[in-house]
Each structure stands twice: as C-alpha cells, then as structure tokens.
Amino acid sequence: MREEQELEAPTLKLPHPQHKHLINLSDVRFTKGADFDFPPNTMIGTDEFLLVVRNQAAFESRYGTGLPIAGEWEPGDNLGNDGEQLKLSLGTGTAIHDFIYLDLAPWPTSPDGPGYSLTLRNPAAAPDHSLPENWRASAVLYGSPGSDDTLTYAGWAAANFTTAELLDPAISGIDANPDHDGLSNFAESYFNGLPKLADPSPGIPGFHDGFLSLIFTRRNGAPAKISPRAPKIQRPHLVAAGSAGRDREHDRQRRWNGDRHDHQQRDSRE
Length: 270
Hints:
The protein is of the alpha+beta class. It has two domains: 2-137, Sandwich (Immunoglobulin-like); 153-269, no CATH class. The protein has seven helices and 15 strands. The strands form five sheets. The chain has a four-stranded antiparallel β-sheet, with no helix packed on it. The longest helix is centred in the C-terminal third of the chain and has 12 residues, at 258-269. It is globular. The relative contact order is 0.10.
C-alpha cells in the first residue's frame, strides 16, 4: 500500500470543446486532502492536463517521463483509500471544487486500494463532483494520468486477441463473431464480454413505461451513445447507462424506439 500511495496524483483538466482558453493558475491551490500551491504563472490550456503528485520519481518509474507534472504536494500528505475531502481553492480559500469521495457504494468501489483510479464520467459537462453517480472506475488498470481515460476498440482487441488473430478480420474484425454467440466483437467490447468464449445475453429484458427495455452493464470507458452496428443492439435510444469493469456494477436501461415496438406489436397480431 505504501508503494501505491507514492503514485497518487490528483489530475486537473480544462475541458471545453467549442472554445480555446488559456488559464493562469497563480493563486490556485489544493488545500484539503493534499497541500499544494501551483507555482506563479502556471498555465493550463483547453483539453490539457496538469498532475500534482506525491513522489515524482516513483510516479515516473511507473508512468514514464514527459508527463505534465506541476509539482509534488507537501510531504506527509496522502489521499485516503477509504475516502477523503479534496478542495481546490482560489486565493485565501474560495472553493473551486470542494467535495468528499468515499469507497463505499453508491461510489465506485473498485478504485479502493491499488488498481483502478477514480475518474469523472464526463468532465466536459462540468458535473457536481460531490455526487457519486458522476464518477466511475478508470477504463484501464492504474488509470491514465495525463490523458483521457478511454479504451478504444483497437485497445480492447489488442487485449483480447493474439497477434495472428489481429491480422485476421474474420476473427478480430469489428463485425466478426468468433465465438458464435450472436454478439459481434463490437458488442462484446461494449458490454465487456469475452470474444472467444460464448457469453450469455448481455442484459435482462423487460418493460419500462410501456416500452421494451434492456438492463445491462457496459465496459468502463465505453461511450454512452453508440452507432447501430450489431444486429443484437440495433436502433437503441439510450435512456441511461451505468459503467462497470469486470466487477459488474450494474445499472441502467436501454429503451428501444417506438417504431420498433409498434413493428413488433404488428408482427404479433399477424
């Protein structure tokens, strides 16, 4: 645990997809959880990251050099794995963000201890940091400090297929179904399935407000909205989506559109 504490790193990102900004972080500081004053004239631009670390040498031994590290926080501080108050302040204490995270549900539980990081689901939406539903476990083990926490289809495929299989689109292609379970590789990657082992249905069908629904879990970092590709998940309208790693934190519902529902009703009468 001591080693993992040496690798702690609160991360700042300035998200704003439509406008470019450059912000001076002079007089910005962490005052709860970790004590750190950003050096004068520290700048952060749109879609850029800044890391504040406990031990830069230990951090770079795992993640490599060249990351946007603003500095180390004061010796003796560490972020509690069982929960902590974090406060980012301007000047003498005006809160920019002030919240308490926990390691118990409804907060994500897999980031408790070594392994996954606690990550905002959608930082571009300026979410309330104090609400557990706005957080998730990182998509990849040990997080991705200094970059967006996403796992592309190519990254998922590389983790699930051999080098030879990656060269064969009949096995690793996005529309392939090598385990013949009715789910394409695209669907397997979205639902965190195993592409070479037949999986059960990725969800539990039912009805919600008069519509056919599907309660399911999705892979950490999978997009909340998807394009129709695989027959099993065509034409969905996303009502809400949870995120889960292999621990399968479950959640949410997918509502099929009224056209499909009406079509099914007509089929049943014929």
